Amino acid sequence: MITAATRRSGRGVVPDGSALPRFRANLRGVGGRPLSSPGSAGSGEGVRDLFRDHPRLHSPDRRSECAGSKSGSTDEEAHEGIVGSAGGQSRIEGARVASWCLLAHTTAMTLKPFRPRFLTTPEIVATAVVLSMEAREKGARAVLIGGAAMSFYGSPRMTTDVDFAATAPIRRGTPIAPTKGNVIGKSFVEEGVTVDWLVRKDDFKALFEDAIRNAVDVEGAYRVVKPEHLVVLKLQANRPKDREDGIWLLVQERLVDRSRARQLTHKFLGGQFAAERFDRWCAQADWRKKEEQSFDPEGEE
After folding, report:
1. Cα 242 from chain centroid (whole Å)
2. Per-residue confidence of the chain (301 residues) as pLDDT tens digits?
3. Which CB contacts under 8 angstroms, 24+ apart, belong to 200-205?
């Protein structure tokens, strides 16, 4: 549950500007426009502006590049293919090309062989839009998790890949197997971006299905896991960077509904023992918040 910091619409969750100054601060489009704005809740204008301002979309041969758009289509029609939640097949390829026009502009895709690197926000967004669209075409559901979801909620931590929780695979790729014989998804590289596509069929399948079912819709273009589920997923992974991410989420004012997150932890991660571990994370977050509030930069030499 996100309270005073946001207001809800039928299409997603949008900041109201009264709190959380860093909420989605680094998810900004070309020209500094936020992907959602208080004046256009769920309208998709933020994503449209992201692509409208991109120079490749205004070149003389823009219409020929967006081959999937119908002949003589306007910029607005091409952008509708990006953000429309029920866009027809005739607009999907045009949207795909427009997305990768942006991606090509923001990444050095000439590096060979491919090397992992930190991703920019436009790269994450373009990857989310295109693969979410592909998943819908194939009857699957997918939501952003991991470092990409952390960026959505304003975390300064950078990521080298884009992680999805999904209901079904959409590509061939290298199996992801944290434990022997326990394949939880596939990893593949798409246009220079490493993607981890996770389809859990183990003890955590129910957790992932619940996270996918209750995700936040972003302007009809892609979906992001809720902060409460994201904290629980971090508890489940429990690597050093996951603990840091989880505590960061809990530190933020009015972002995570701790009561709801504790219920999810108890339900999906093993009962009281897991819930007590969540309580320890909350205690660490409270201590860190207190330290941040007492920090006086002017008193530092």
Report:
1. 16
2. 433 343 333 333 333 433 333 334 444 333 333 444 333 334 444 444 444 444 433 334 433 333 333 434 443 443 344 444 334 444 555 555 555 555 554 444 444 455 678 999 999 999 999 999 999 999 999 999 999 999 999 999 999 999 999 999 998 888 887 766 677 889 999 888 999 999 998 899 999 999 999 999 999 999 999 999 999 999 999 999 999 999 999 999 999 999 999 999 999 998 999 999 999 999 999 999 999 888 766 655 4
3. 200/165, 204/236, 204/268
Give pTM, 2 decimals: 0.65
DSSP symbols for 144-175: EEHHHHHHHTT-----SEEEEEESS--S--EE
Distance CA 235, CA 281 (A): 9
Q: Distance between CA 88 and CA 257 in Å, rounded?
A: 37
Q: Which helix (H) or strand (E) holds 198?
A: strand 193-198
Per DSSP, helices labelled H in the chain are: 45-52, 62-65, 75-83, 89-106, 121-137, 146-152, 205-213, 227-237, 240-251, 258-268, 272-294
* CA–CA distance, 189 with 202 (Å, rounded to integer): 25
Q: How is the chain split into domains, by residue range?
A: 6-225, 227-293
- Pair 226, 214: CB distance under 8 Å: yes
Give the integer Cα–Cα distance in Å for 212 and 206: 10
- Please tell me the distance from the alpha carbon of residue 162 to that of residue 144, in angstroms, as a whole number: 8
Report d(CA 46, CA 52) in Å as an integer: 10
3-state SS class at 222: strand
